[in-house]
Every structure is written in C-alpha cells, then in structure tokens.
TrEMBL record:
SMART domains membership: VKc (SM00756)
Family (UniProt): Belongs to the VKOR family.
GO molecular function, a single term: quinone binding
Domain of life: Bacteria
One GO cellular component, as annotated: membrane
UniProt protein name: Vitamin K epoxide reductase family protein
Subcellular location: Membrane
Positions of the Vitamin K epoxide reductase domain: 39-185
InterPro entries found in the cross-reference section: VKOR (IPR012932), VKOR_Actinobacteria (IPR041714), VKOR_sf (IPR038354)
Transmembrane segments: 41-62, 107-126, 133-151, 157-181, 202-224
Topological category with respect to the lipid bilayer: Multi-pass membrane protein
Length: 232
C-alpha cells in the first residue's frame, strides 16, 4: 500500500513537471528571437528617438522664452503662413496648463517627460531588471505622451491652421519612441504575460509593416491637409 501511494505521488509530480515543461516549451517557441527583438536594439531605437525628442523640446523651450522677451518676433522656423512656429507658439494650445495665474509652456513638460524616457532607455540598454508594474507604467506613460503629441498635432492642422517644423519633428520622434517602447515591452519585458498573439505579431515581423504604414499615413494626412501651402 505504501509503495502504491509513493508511486502515485511520483506519477503526479512527473505529470506536473511535464506540464510545466510543455508550457515552457510553448513559451520558447512563441517568443520572438533574433537581434531585432533583443533589449540592445529595441532600447537603442527608443534612446535615439527620446534623445531627438528631448533636443527638440529644448529648442521649443528656447523659442518660447524668446517670444516671451520679444512678443511678436518672428522665429527662424517661420517659413510661410503655414510653416510658422511663432503662430503655433502664440496659440493657447501651446500653454494649456495654467496655475495661480501662471502659464506653463508644453515644451517644459516635454523636457521633463523625455528626460525620463531617455533614462528608461538607458536602463533597458543596461539590461537592468525592473518590476513588471514599472514596465507597465512606462508603457502607459509612453501612450499618454503619444496621445498628447497627436492632440497637439491635430490642433495645429485643423484648428490653428499652422504647422511648426520642430513640433512635427517632436511628433514623429515620439511616435518612433512609442513603437520601440511597445516592442521592448512585449519582447523584452514579456508583457502582457502569456500573450501569444502579440508575441506572434513581433516574431513574424508584422510590426515592421504596421510601423511603416503608420508613418506614411501621418505624412499623407499632413500633405493632404496642407501640402500645396507647405511649399508655397
């Protein structure tokens, strides 16, 4: 009787271990592989995009201070009626945060946010393990930054009817930043857990096609709306 119970327990343990091995094998099979899905590449792209966005934010902040000292002054990126940084900078959308009678330019928040993303990209490149909640909050922060950037771009296109070249550079760099952050979140941080659909999306390199269409779509929208005037 004792031997029977012992054998049964061993069989249950073996079955459990076999199930774990099968799950691990499935995870290994579905997980994206190759240099393009590793931390070095995904976070390097994020670092480059975030650095560009940070640099552009500094330029926009400097232009904001220049206009504050000399209201009505034309900026170097004022090309024509449509490509006009000063028109965008003097709109209310450029300073939507107001507190105690003070206005805070968007560019200052851009400097703060992009500094954080640059730091996170460096942490990713160093392959430092971070808690899952931290990786999740990072992705949500990237999504919020992208949504904010797109809102400002739509305001420029359809409400202000003027485009700032530096703002467009910031919008495209923020887009690439979010693409690479999403890539790293799935392939490096393994979030959401056990999501074979997203793993397959990156493993089959569908993201390359989607990202290319995404960028082209943004360019097409800008050209359709203001194309003739951009080169006037």
């Amino acid at each position: 009787m004792g031997n029977f119970e012992g054998n049964a327990a061993e069989n249950e343990t073996d079955a459990a271990m076999t199930g774990v091995d099968v799950v691990a094998a499935d995870d290994d099979f579905t997980k994206p592989r190759g240099w393009r899905h590793e931390a070095t590449w995904t976070y390097l792209i994020m670092l480059i995009a975030s650095t560009v966005a940070l640099f552009v934010s500094f330029i926009l902040a400097a232009d904001t201070l220049k206009l504050a000292r000399n209201p009505g002054q034309k900026l170097n990126c004022d090309v024509n009626a449509v490509l006009s940084c000063s028109t965008v900078a003097e709109s209310w959308q450029a300073e939507i945060v107001k507190f105690a009678g003070l206005s805070f330019p968007n560019a200052f928040f851009g400097i703060a946010a992009e500094s954080v993303f640059v730091t996170i990209a460096v942490i990713g490149l160093a392959k430092v393990a971070v808690p899952r909640w931290f990786a999740t909050c990072t992705w949500l922060g990237g999504l919020a930054a992208l949504a904010y950037s797109y809102w400002l771009t739509t305001q420029s296109l359809f409400v202000i009817n003027a485009l700032c070249p530096w703002c467009l550079a910031l919008m495209f760099s923020t887009t690439v930043q979010f693409m690479s952050l999403s890539h790293a979140t799935v392939t490096v941080q393994d979030l959401p857990a056990k999501n074979t659909g997203l793993r397959k999306y990156y493993r089959l390199n569908f993201d390359l096609m989607v990202d290319a269409v995404w960028i082209v779509a943004l360019i097409v929208v800008i050209l359709v709306k203001d194309g003739p005037m951009l080169f006037a």
